[in-house]
Amino acid sequence: MIFKYQNEMKTARLEDCPPNDYAASSIIAFRFVFSEIYHPNNFRPVGLIDPQRLNEFKENPKKCQALGLSMFSEAAKAQDRFDYLQRKTAGKFANIAGSYLATLNLEATDGIHSKRHDSHFTFHEFENVNLADRVIKIENL
Q1: Residue 109 in contact with residue 24, Cβ under 8 Å?
Q2: What is the structure's pLDDT at 27?
Q3: 39, 50, 100, 133 — which has fewest CB within 10 A?
Q4: What does the DSSP 8-state code read for residue 18?
Q5: What does the DSSP assignment read for 40-109?
Q6: Exposure string (b/e) for 29-62, b if CB count within 10 Å is 16 or more?
């Protein structure tokens, strides 16, 4: 399958992106979003929202993560991470990532993801996938 941001991966010379240990599965996932489900940054990787951040990473695995979507397998862990990032950025994190939590019903045909680390994982979506269609609920954080 072709990934949505395959051209950006190629431009950044990320040959092993995403890594071979990423897998496809049908899962419930949680992601920070804005209240308007079609907001352009809701399902856009941080490396494209802020290209400078992509350039700050020296290691290719980190650059690859920046071209994927940050998600969680547990709502409570997502809430904890949101609270931490809000404190760390003096309340500015919500301006970049949104202040709502979307619950998504991801199918194996949507993309592949990393292993979960404390509920967090990186998701690389396939070309022509519209993740806004996978949202089943949005809640204020």
Answers
A1: yes
A2: 96
A3: 133
A4: S
A5: TTTTS-HHHHSHHHHHH--SHHHHHHHTSEEEES-HHHHHHHHHHHHHHTTT-HHHHH-SEEEEEEE-TT
A6: bbbbbbeeeeeebbbebbbeeeeeebeeeeebee
Report d(CA 98, CA 76) in Å as an integer: 17
Whole-model pTM: value is 0.94
Query: In one letter, which amino acid is 126?
Result: F
What would the pLDDT profile of 6-58 be if each residue is shown by its tens digit?
999 999 999 899 999 999 999 999 999 999 999 999 999 999 998 888 888 88
Question: 124 to each of 3, 42, 76, 84, how far by Cα in Å?
Answer: 7, 14, 23, 24
> Phi and psi of 102, rounded to 5°?
-95, 135
Q: Are 53 and 67 in contact (CB under 8 A)?
A: no
Separation between Cα atoms, residue 35 and residue 12, nearest integer Å: 31
Q: How far apart are CA 45 and CA 61, in angstroms?
A: 14
> 72 falls in which pLDDT band (50, 70, 90)?
very high
Distance from C-alpha of 99 to C-alpha of 19, rounded to nearest angstrom: 30
Instruction: Give residue 112's pLDDT.
Output: 98
The continuous run of DSSP H or E covering 10 comes out as helix 6-11
